[in-house]
């Protein structure tokens, strides 16, 4: 299977849809507070990052990192602008500043 081929994309999409319920359940169990900062790793098309962005609210970014090219169409379809999909290695990811709340 050639990288980026229609066959590979179809396989990825089927696998991603299988992870969606798991990602949603994981985010629900995490009980993210509004404003939480989340780093999603090996994010693919965002089965965890998209529910995290919905739960954390519009005032914080959800970073979704993967070594492969980002597949962020799900976030755009849902109108989310607090999640960013980037190609990168999480081992090189900068630690966000600590934000304290009263």
From TrEMBL:
What is the superkingdom listed in this entry's lineage?
Answer: Bacteria
What InterPro entries does the database record attribute to this sequence?
SAM-dependent_MTases_sf
What's the name of the protein?
A: Methyltransferase
């Amino acid at each position: 299977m050639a990288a980026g081929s229609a066959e590979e994309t179809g396989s990825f999409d089927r696998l991603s849809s299988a992870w969606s319920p798991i990602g949603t359940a994981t985010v629900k169990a995490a009980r993210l507070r509004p404003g939480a900062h989340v780093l999603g790793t090996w994010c693919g098309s965002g089965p965890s990052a998209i529910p995290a962005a919905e739960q954390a609210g519009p005032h914080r970014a959800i970073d979704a990192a993967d070594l492969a090219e980002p597949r962020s169409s799900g976030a755009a379809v849902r109108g989310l602008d607090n999640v960013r999909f980037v190609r990168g290695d999480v081992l090189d990811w900068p630690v966000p500043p600590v934000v304290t709340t009263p």
